[in-house]
């Protein structure tokens, strides 16, 4: 069934260990397909491993579909009053690199959701 691949345009040809008559292409980074002839752009964070067009393998301390979320950024962030910590994303430098932010419940605000909003009802 497996016909030997004659050419690996952007990669290296190897024989299968269990069938020396069949070969496969190991593509260079940025290339895919049976003959490594399909170019693709890696959307993964720097330092991550791209597998074809859609899979990112994240290094230690990173997560998310493209490895842009920083795992340790919420470990030291103390959100209070039911605030939710959101890990830092290096693509959006809202505060600083490796920083997280708190999403506060409706009645609180501040970096740690430490301030309660004051409401004045006028009737």
TrEMBL record:
<dbReference type="InterPro" id="IPR009030">
    <property type="entry name" value="Growth_fac_rcpt_cys_sf"/>
</dbReference>
<protein>
    <recommendedName>
        <fullName>EGF-like domain-containing protein</fullName>
    </recommendedName>
</protein>
<feature type="domain" description="EGF-like">
    <location>
        <begin position="70"/>
        <end position="114"/>
    </location>
</feature>
<keyword id="KW-1015">Disulfide bond</keyword>
<feature type="disulfide bond">
    <location>
        <begin position="104"/>
        <end position="113"/>
    </location>
</feature>
<dbReference type="InterPro" id="IPR000742">
    <property type="entry name" value="EGF"/>
</dbReference>
<keyword id="KW-0245">EGF-like domain</keyword>
């Amino acid at each position: 069934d497996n016909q030997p691949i004659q050419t690996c345009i952007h990669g290296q040809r190897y024989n299968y260990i269990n069938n020396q008559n069949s070969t496969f292409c190991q593509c260079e980074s940025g290339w895919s397909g049976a003959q490594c002839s399909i170019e693709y752009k890696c959307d993964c964070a720097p330092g991550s491993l791209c597998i074809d067009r859609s899979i990112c393998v994240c290094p230690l301390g990173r997560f998310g579909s493209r490895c842009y979320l920083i795992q340790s950024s919420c470990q030291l962030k103390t959100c209070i009053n039911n605030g939710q910590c959101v890990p830092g994303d290096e693509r959006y430098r809202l505060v600083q690199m490796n920083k997280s932010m708190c999403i506060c419940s409706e009645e609180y605000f501040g970096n740690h959701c430490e301030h309660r909003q004051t409401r004045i009802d006028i009737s």
